[in-house]
Amino acid sequence: MDGCARWGTKFYAIYVIPTVSVLSALSSLIFAGIFIRAFVTKQQQSPLPQIVWSVTLFLLIAVCHALTGMVYLVSCADFVTVPPRFALTGLYTINVVYVFQSLCLFCIFFMRMRSVFKASPLAVSKRSTRMFISLSFCYISSVLIQMVVFVEHNEKYFIWAAFSAISILCFSAASIWLNALFASKLLILHRQTRRDSRDEGLVYVAVKTSLLCLISACSFVLFHVFFAFSLHGSTSSPHLMLVTFMFMNLDLNTNFCSVLLTFKYFDSWYQRLCGCCHVQCNHLWNINRTREHICEDGSNGGTNSSI
User: Fold this and answer.
1) Contact (Cβ atoms closer than 8 angstroms) between residue 106 and residue 53
2) pTM for this entry
């Protein structure tokens, strides 16, 4: 590594990354406090398990931010002497915390779907529950194997990359599956209760949840792609390290927002941040619904004329 690259690495690791990490951790704790206050003051009515899992997710994200900044700072600072394996141990710890916050995200979306359809004939089946558990188990297993082979030897990089791809596939599959299952159940419910006043509210919840879950899944994939490149020795660069960190920070923050904004208390914030995207998604939903109405009216008209 030449002098310029070494200077860039130290500048990013000592000043930029710890500063952004501390600010992100503080913002996570502040918003978690606002969320807890809304629940305690009865301004947010939600089942207690969802509240507990959400607060756990917020705290894990704050811890992950803080650990990331500390590992980068201590590993590259000249004024601190640390054992050679400190950075590797720190990365293991960050990875464990990251996996737990991903699992919390899975559980929150799954519980949200269960609560929406709990009192309807479209309640989540045991098969869907087993599918959720299987995907979660595959994700945990692939990440654990990643951690075992996460060493500096180049010959094991491709093994790590293979299991990294499996973990990305499991997470993406779980996100897409939860979205598809949620949307399909709402579509069936929409067809059954088309004249019901609850219909617009259900459509709003479906679009909102699907959009937030999609954003979270995209940020997850982008972070892991850049992370895989940053670990390969032939593409090591301080700028790539910074970009990878920024995508990790983005992924954690989108996970945080994708859960925080699903609650009704923060609906005004959702409208400010995602209002434009929500309008476009809702427009596509309305187009599809209009086409269904036209097809049904046409079929009914043809039946009546034949009679």
Assistant:
1) no
2) 0.80
